Amino acid sequence: MGCERANSVEAEAQANSKRVTASSTNDATEPIVDVDFGFRIDHPGEGWKLLGEADVKQFNPDAEAGMLHDSGLLCIVIVSRTPDMGLEAAAEFVGQQKFPKQVIESSRDVETSGVPGKQHIFTAEVGGVAYRYESTVYYRQDHVYQVLSSTLASKPASDLDSSQDTFAFLDGEVRGRQIIAPRIERYDGVGARVRDGRFESGVSGLQIEPPEGWGILVGSQRERIHPDSEVVFSLGKDAFVAITTETVSTDGQAGMVGFLRTRGGELFGEARGEGQTHELAGIPVSFQTYRSDPFEYQHGVFSHGSAVIQVSSWYTVPLADELRPSVEALYAAFTSIPGDERERLVRSLRETPAQQRRFEPDRSYWGGTFRDFANDLSWRCPQGMWGVDSFDAAREQRPDAVLQAQNIEASVMVSLEVWAADGASPADILDRELEGRELVSRSTASVDGVPVQRGLSSGRVNGVEFRYATLVAVHHGQNVLMEAWTANPGAVQDEAMARALANLRFHDRLEPVETLGRTRVDRLFGRRFEIPAGFELSQSELVGSERVEVWKSGRRELTAWSLSFVNGLQEESWIYDFIEQNARDRISALGRFGAPERSEVEISGRKGRHLRWSAAGGLSRVEADFLVHELTVFAFVYSNFSEAEMAEVRRSQQL
User: Fold this and answer.
1) pTM
2) Residue 150 in contact with residue 164, Cβ under 8 Å?
3) Cα→Cα distances 643→129, 466, 634, 638, 650, Å
4) Where are the residues of the annotated region Disordered (predicted)?
5) What is the pLDDT of residue 1?
6) What residues in the chain have per-residue pLDDT under 50?
């Protein structure tokens, strides 16, 4: 029996070393050889798992291969077809894609398999977490290669030293391959949705079923490409079309169309030619072509019902002649949603708002409430078609912004900014905000015991009238400015702006996690559960987007594990398999457990996954519950718990 148990433990350890996820069939230690793009990655050794195309695209949809270390260090390979560029231009092209708060630490020339490259090591913040990156760019046979390694900035810089050593080029021709975006059958967003592969917008009244080869980018993928858009369509990595929608009154549409056309000319570079007219949803739309190397852009603006719609398309200049017909085929797929169907769609979107989550280590948005633990502020999202932008996108617009949200239907934007108090009073700050605007009204009030200044104003920007609602306060040594604005002034918009500002709350102390009696409340991740009687907290750690807490009582141990994938691109089914494998790796490292038994379990009214490991002789037992909810993992790991004790903890959890 002892030999059999030892064999079982060893077999599990061997199997785990070769799997990226619990359902993986590929050996993660075997070299990856990509004959189409002409490169290979060899296995670096202990602790590493190679990522094939299916797995690596869960981390970055543009990647073709990569590898992951059990420390969390990730290395990916991105390849794109860009003829007639050269290494210097390729390095500049990749370098234009800046990360938030990017700081270059070093740069050098390198060479791999006789191919010269440009390497940069830099730090940046993504999702409020500091990372260190090593980016190496090569240009070979009309293809740009980026080998990108990343790890937490808190870890030694030397961790990156050998992360790219096993990448090499193959001899021979780089033939490439067609990259086709996966088809999305169903998605529920803010003001829009996807059904049976067709995009439907309740705001613009457009529906688009993309032609073959085109994919629909939604959620984090859309935000990564064009955060201001309603939807983005991609033709592999070669061409992109983004749609941006503004609700504008009939009287203001002509002015808004002109404003957006002018701004497009400022953004996209040198105009080329006279422009062309394409028919979208039965409407002739004038498109201007621009060039800003290495891209050619097409930009068109038109009115459709109560909306003004921008269509922005881009692709690299050397491929322009090849790709324009495909872009025009997508334009031809634009159609109008019939009146009755649109009314039903809008009603459905209002009744079932999108479930959004945003996450950073010191602030989060879930359940319709934003919580800023660093500044003791919270904000409740009003009812309606409101969407909350990623925190990185908010800071990109305004460096001091901690929140940015928008009502898609009313075309109202809201921003919350916080910065260190400089001695100015709320009245002084409001005076500065009102400069150059026409004052409509001004008042003072008290919110949660904090004096606030409020102002309602209007102004014109490039001939377009804007309406602003502003709230200013000083709280805990910080200036707080919340402002809502719209380019579509009206009673509906005034009400939406007033409701948005009224939902801001000031707290004496907003704790991200605390114990109330026997209830553990985690406001950062959004979970609460009852601590079993007699258990004491022995460990509580937050690293990046992961919190681990360990509670102990004698030989029994309860681990509460929360992990956010909100800022990533992963699919829920993949997360389940990846997290199960992660748990199996950790338990296997104890050296006492073989393969677990898997079953389904109900957690917080939802179906989750349960694993059970038994050690030799049954003297110790480890079990785990996993639930993936809104791209967040909520897990319990039980050591030496009875079935009844586990059920009690499970029943107590609320999300």
Assistant:
1) 0.92
2) no
3) 38, 61, 19, 10, 10
4) 1-26
5) 47
6) 1
